[in-house]
Design brief:
The protein is α+β, with helices and mostly antiparallel strands and about 325 residues long. The protein has seven helices and ten strands. A hairpin with a 2-residue loop joins strand 2 and strand 3.
Length: about 325
Amino acid sequence: MPTFGHRLRHERESRNTPIQEVSARTHIGLRYLEALENNDFDALPGPRGFAKLYIRAYADLLGFDPESMIEEFEKERRRQARTTASKPRGERRRPRRVRYEPPPRKQPSPPPTEPQAEPALEREPSPPPPEKIHEQPETAAALERIEPRSRVGFDRRILVAAAVGIVLLALAVIALRPDHAPMERLSTSTPEPSRPAGPVVEPSVDAAPPAAVAAGMRITESGVGTRVVDLQLVGETDRFSAGATAVFFTRVVDGRGRSLRHVWLHEGRVIQTRTMGVRSPDWRTYSTKTLWKQGRWSVEARDTDDRVIARAEFICTKP
């Protein structure tokens, strides 16, 4: 029975996509992708929510249903948990005896010798502190030496007061001028040109012909098969086995520069959508889907207006 890792590897290999390309396009570490495909869940980082994000990145890149693959991942994880819990524990090892080795004995240190007393030196008496001399300045030079900063601040205040007085005086002179009047506001509107009296005759203009409606793109060939060889559908059928890969082939005409969508449905529910650009007037394209669910399937080709321009139906049975 194929495991989760085998099915994930099958989805990638069926689209001829190397695992290194998946790592480069999804920005996921190569060792994490290999751990997913090898069912080595213990090598994944963090909680199992990271694994689900990796599976969704796989699905977005390769174009398959992520929900069914996430269900397979949960089943495989629970199976591994039950297998790990059922394994018997190993026998307890007896602790190894370690031979005690006493530390080496320290040799007795020689008795300390008594320090010889040094002769005390006589200290010279310290001179008395000088007496403070209080002198009262009598001249302007002495005043500048004692308080130079206060003099500088006083000079600055005088200069500022003089500048303010000059500005106020100039404003008063301007306000008292007799010819002082507010400026008139200029009008930005332009006068309307005068019209001649009498009825105005409008020139007759022939109505322009309506523009031609561009024809929509058409699909001349479509079908479901097993593979595409040399731009031709091979193995066209309406019955597949579970686990097989179905290929929906379409040939688009008059659709250059537009986009085409392949919508895969299972029992009327949308499972997968692939959007492809049309690059020439006669363009062949296809999409693939691995069928894990049994029942009635259908796939539709839709244009940019969500119109169904081609449809194919088939049945998926037990393998």
